[in-house]
Amino acid sequence: MGVSINSTITWVGKVDWELRRFHGEEYSTHRGSSYNSYLVRDEKTVLIETVWTPFAKEFVNNLQQEIDLKNIDYIIANHGESDHSGALPELMRLIPDTPIYCTVNAVKSLKGQYHQEWNFRVVKSGDRLNIGTKELIFIEAPMLHWPDSMFCYLTVDNTLFSTDAFGQHFATELMFNDLVDQSELFQECIKYYANILTPFSALVDKKIKEFVSLNLPLDMICTSHGVVWRDNPLQIVTKYLEWAASYQENQITIIYDTMWDGTRKMAEAIAKGITGADRDVVVKVFNASRADKNDIITEVFKSKAILVGSPTINRGILSAVAAILEEIRGLGFRNKKAAAFGAYGWSGESVKMISERLKEGGFTLVNDGLKLLWNPDQQGLDDCVTFGGDLARISMFP
Ligand code: FEO
């Protein structure tokens, strides 16, 4: 049922405690998620966003207990992706003439997905919708994270409805940012940014600065996933500005896969070498075929340097390493160093191949990598320690 956010805004979304995979199988959601939908009641009543398709009937049933659907004057579709628009077909069957306010690109995405000629009202940045004593101001936010994305701002309540931005996949019944476990919340926030918003960091920075230049007071951010930011909402905006600025912590991450343990032994010896050279740096080591892909990406996001290792197989690299390298390439990380390593028995192409992929992904290669024939002996392990130490020393300086 609905949850009161304040005297004007009621949350009418869905908390999805069961969700463990999002975007098909692409994104792990260890803590579930929520699809946030809001009713804004003034002289006019506005519904902002809906929920994901599997919950469409449940959503409309609950909404009918909250309000006579005929009393919804306007619908706002801030973003067309189906986790927010998925209940529109069910809802629009019952109130087919209700205007849907959205961007010109959202008309394309909504028509493309649902093949319906709904009563679309295209809005642009700066357009306003009077709802009685208050107004909604629309702010286009293309590529945060789809071309169709926009924010809307409710005057008097000083509330920004920010669609996916500032959100996180985090199921909670507590609703507000100040009530939940802060380490869990920020872990999900940074994971969301790292895995979804990294490629659009320049636009994140620009959009936040544009919003700040509007001088609109900000008391609350209602995102489309996770908590409502009511306690110091600027804290997540500040975090986004930090994350958008080629973010890094004092961390080096090692990612590898292994067939007969040679490359694993190399990874562990390299980790020792890093720590031996710099006691302050955080070193994290992941087997790409066993660790969660999105968690690894979050650690890459936090790192100032990464090492990627694979043995050679079929003149190439192991599939789990190839998959994470493809993910890393697409996200377009900036301002990070990298190097490759791997054990081999015969032809030994893996290190060169990984180096090329890291370079394509925008990483600065610090050397040509380290390859060891067969399983590393003591001399090989010593070479790995030296290799790790060298990388740590190079990475001490930006
Ligand atoms: Fe939560 Fe881009 O949808």
First-to-last CA distance: 51 Å
Largest sheet data: 7 strands, mixed
- By CATH, the architecture of the largest domain is named 4-Layer Sandwich
Using the coordinates above, name the CATH class of the largest domain.
Alpha Beta
* Global shape: elongated
Going by CATH, the homologous superfamily of the largest domain would be: Ribonuclease Z/Hydroxyacylglutathione hydrolase-like
Taken together, the total number of domains comes to 2
Mean pLDDT: 97
- Summarize the amount of helix as a percent range: 25-40%
Low-confidence stretches: none
E-strand count: 25
Percent of sequence in beta strands: 15-25%
Quaternary structure annotation: single chain
What is CATH's topology name of the largest domain? Metallo-beta-lactamase, Chain A
Widest β-sheet, arrangement of strands: 1-2-7-8-9-10-11
Number of helices: 12
> What small molecules accompany the polymer chains?
MU-OXO-diiron
- What's the gyration radius in Å? 24 Å
List descriptors.
single chain, 398 residues, alpha/beta, Rossmann fold, 2 domains, seven-stranded mixed beta sheet, 12 helices, 22% strand, binds MU-OXO-diiron
Summarize the structure.
The protein is α/β, with parallel strands linked by helices and 398 residues long. 35% of the residues lie in helices and 22% in strands.
